[in-house]
Design a protein that fits this description.
Layout (H helix, E strand, L loop, with lengths): L6 H9 L6 H38 L10 H12 L10 H9 L18 H16 L7 H12 L10 H11 L12 H8 L2 H17 L23
Helix pairs in contact: 2-3, 3-4, 5-6, 5-7, 6-7
Length: 236
């Protein structure tokens, strides 16, 4: 009996998604970064308050009383400030380690290995991409950005220690609001961007000042021309 459904083809289609465009990928990175910044800020605020509260309890008369242990304090601040399912939670060991290391009321250290490609480096690469766009050099594509990343570390302590390809990828992740894929601006684009009310007013004021300094005009009211108006009426 012939099957009416190809299970392998169906599984391949249902388990894969279509390739995102560069603009869509950039938008997703921006949203992800925004969420991470928001959740990190919540965790830092909860960590500062929880460690401060735990230190007060440990140094005060409530030390050792029921409901004031580190596990209870962590649960209290998780319920009050970190109640979203995706929020990073506090726990007993985190508070205990913070109290032992004197990290009370401060921003907690980042977990994981130290970052080699810092945001200072990726930020410089992102700003270079913007300058390429506005100067009319063309689109800041991957090939050009890899060349820029290589030039950025040549002759420095980072040469041979950083992969330009990873630098470019991390720049896309760190600064999606800057690395938005757009075409290079031409003269018409720059002219439209420049034509604002303030720029036009500043330009005309500057031209007027120059003419006054050249004694071509006077900065005082005057009569431009005389007009003789004849008015007639007709009777029908």
């Amino acid at each position: 009996m012939k099957k009416w459904l190809d299970s392998e083809a169906t599984a391949a289609v249902m388990s894969k998604r279509s390739r995102r465009s560069r603009t869509a990928a950039n938008r997703d990175r921006f949203e992800e970064n925004a969420v991470n910044v928001f959740r990190t800020a919540k965790y830092v605020a909860a960590f500062k308050k929880a460690t401060t509260y735990a230190q007060v309890i440990r140094d005060g008369p409530l030390k050792g009383t029921r409901g004031n242990g580190l596990r209870d304090i962590a649960a209290k601040f998780n319920d009050d400030m970190l109640n979203s399912p995706n929020d990073r939670k506090l726990n007993k060991s985190t508070l205990d380690r913070a109290l032992k290391n004197g990290m009370v009321g401060v921003t907690p250290p980042k977990i994981g290995k130290p970052v080699k490609v810092t945001k200072e480096i990726t930020g410089a690469l992102a700003e270079h991409a913007v300058m390429m766009q506005v100067s009319g050099e063309g689109e800041a594509n991957k090939e050009k950005m890899l060349n820029a990343a290589t030039a950025l570390i040549v002759g420095t302590e980072h040469e041979g220690q950083m992969d330009p390809s990873w630098m470019y990828t991390k720049t896309l992740r760190d600064f999606p609001e800057i690395m938005n894929p757009v075409k290079a601006k031409d003269n018409d684009d720059r002219r439209v961007d420049w034509t604002t009310y303030k720029n036009l007013k500043d330009w005309t004021d500057g031209a007027k000042k120059l003419l006054i300094e050249m004694d071509m005009v006077k900065d005082e009211p005057g009569l431009i021309s005389k007009l003789h108006i004849h008015q007639s009426s007709f009777c029908i």
